[in-house]
Design goal:
Blueprint: E1 2-7, E2 12-19, H1 21-38, H2 51-81, E3 86-92, E4 108-116, E5 129-135, H3 139-152, E6 155-159, E7 167-176, E8 179-180, E9 186-192, H4 200-204, E10 214-217, H5 219-222, H6 226-233, H7 237-242, E11 247-258, H8 264-271, H9 279-313, H10 321-331, H11 337-363, H12 370-387, H13 395-407, H14 409-431, E12 433-439, H15 441-450
Parallel strand pairs: 5-12
Antiparallel strand pairs: 1-2, 2-4, 3-4, 6-11, 7-8, 7-9, 7-11, 10-11
């Protein structure tokens, strides 16, 4: 076999593989002999099929398979041995590749186009500056979190007098001509909350009412859709559309949700028994938790800005654009020619970032260990629990949740990629000059709105 490389420019090359019969004949013969031993052809006993018949029936297919395998193995071996940093996959040359015929040819020539990645050197110094935004924890943010906890850990208490947000329970009876309609709709243990009523006049009928009082109201006026009416009266939506009569409700119970007091019981529910012992410590702990969560936001913004800075440093890099567009269209059916031109600049920016990451990873000998992935998975798990107010979860629960995440192949791959990228950004953060800026959460969020 003979392999010839022709460089067209710094980003494009043509590789030609010339294959002779001697390169594949022995393997083809061996495969045909093996096939003959196993062939089950009508009219012949197993293993007794004439070799000529086997070759006639299957020789071309076996030869094509061996040649394709030979081409693939040798092409990629050549790429590896010559340290060619290719982009995409080799593509058959559209002009120099000649047609071939397995029936008449013994020797073959395969011509491939290769896209070559540009050479880059990533040099970072303190002359490279990236903004780093430290988000201030405001008193309002702390107070909102306190309210969130008092609301989440409150309890329901039975009351005697109705207020707007109370839940009322009682027997609900349809009326007609100012009296209970004995054949009308009856609902035992009906429940309603005046706050959900859209009509202020109907809503006001309930305010100040007491347990045992009788209220007459009109559901079709109180609520503005049949879904709420059907739910209240336990009827279908079609039936609810036809309801326009008054109903009588005898209030049997009044239930009100009371937010938790700020006391030791609340502290223990949020952070565990005895971890926090005063309101001052409680608010301090809340501030620390908010600050920890905001650090991840600051790090994310830094990663966005650092990536933009690095990609901008290599604005003059050249790429095999024609080759890449052809490869993208041939390898991904979801990409359409009419949208490729519009999307291509973003693809090139992502490709530049990929090359930069590779260079920084090799230059700094960065490696992703299993322990790194486990710690990152735990961090993700803690953040997910925190979203639901579950702070201070037991370490074993966090670890088990993280292990479950890592069992999914797609999730594990994503975690590994994130850890690898984090390590790259850590190197960048240590190397460049950070321009620290204090910002409020409102100012920080506006930065993303501008994007």
């Amino acid at each position: 076999m003979n392999i010839v490389r022709k460089d067209l420019d710094q980003n494009n090359a043509i590789v030609t593989l010339r294959i002779e019969k001697a390169d594949y004949a022995e393997k083809v013969d061996k495969n045909l002999r093996d096939f003959r031993k196993k062939a089950n052809i009508p009219g012949f006993r197993p293993g007794m099929v004439p070799a000529g018949l086997v070759r006639k029936m299957y020789g071309k297919a076996v030869m094509a398979e061996e040649i394709n395998k030979l081409v693939s193995e040798n092409l990629y071996s050549y790429i590896r041995e010559n340290n060619m940093n290719i982009l995409g996959e080799p593509l058959p040359n559209e002009t120099e590749q000649k047609p071939f015929d397995f029936d008449t040819q013994d020797d073959f020539e395969f011509v491939f186009d290769l896209g070559i990645a540009p050479e880059i050197e990533v040099e970072l110094t303190k002359k490279d500056k990236v903004n780093y935004y430290n988000i201030t924890v405001s008193d309002e943010m702390i107070e909102n979190q306190v309210k969130s906890y008092t609301g989440r850990y409150g309890k329901y208490i039975q009351e005697e007098v109705v207020e707007e947000k109370d839940m009322l329970k009682g027997e609900l009876l349809e009326m007609a001509n100012g009296k209970v309609n004995e054949s009308g709709i009856k609902v035992q243990d009906a429940t309603l909350t005046p706050a959900y009523m859209k009509n202020d006049t109907q809503k006001a009928l309930f305010f100040g009412a007491k347990k045992g009082d009788v209220i007459i109201f009109n559901p079709s006026k109180a609520f503005d859709n049949e879904t709420e009416i059907s739910s209240l009266l336990k009827i279908s939506k079609d039936q609810a559309k036809k309801v326009d009569s008054d109903f009588l409700l005898k209030i049997e119970s009044i239930t009100r949700y009371h937010e938790s007091e700020i006391n030791q019981g609340l502290f223990d529910k949020v952070y565990g028994d005895g971890v926090v012992k005063s309101e001052e410590e409680f608010r301090t702990k809340i501030k620390e938790n908010i600050q920890d969560n905001l650090v991840s936001d600051s790090e994310f913004k830094f990663s966005v800005d650092a990536k933009e800075m690095l990609v901008a440093k290599f604005s003059d890099l050249s790429f095999p654009d024609t080759f890449l567009k052809r490869w993208l269209l041939s390898s991904n059916q979801k990409i359409k020619a009419e949208t490729l031109e519009e999307d291509y600049p973003k693809m090139i920016a992502d490709l530049k970032w990929h090359l930069i990451k590779e260079k920084l990873t090799k230059a700094n000998d960065l490696k992703v260990e299993t322990a790194d992935v486990e710690e990152y998975a735990k961090k993700i798990a803690k953040a997910q629990f925190a979203q639901y107010g579950m702070i201070g979860m037991d370490d074993e629960i966090i670890a088990n949740y993280a292990k479950d995440m890592m069992k999914k192949e797609e999730t594990l791959k994503s975690l590994i990629d994130k850890v690898a990228e984090e390590k790259v950004f850590a190197v960048v953060k240590e190397t460049v000059k950070l321009d620290n800026k204090e910002v409020s959460i409102e100012e920080f969020n506006k930065m993303f709105e501008a994007k």
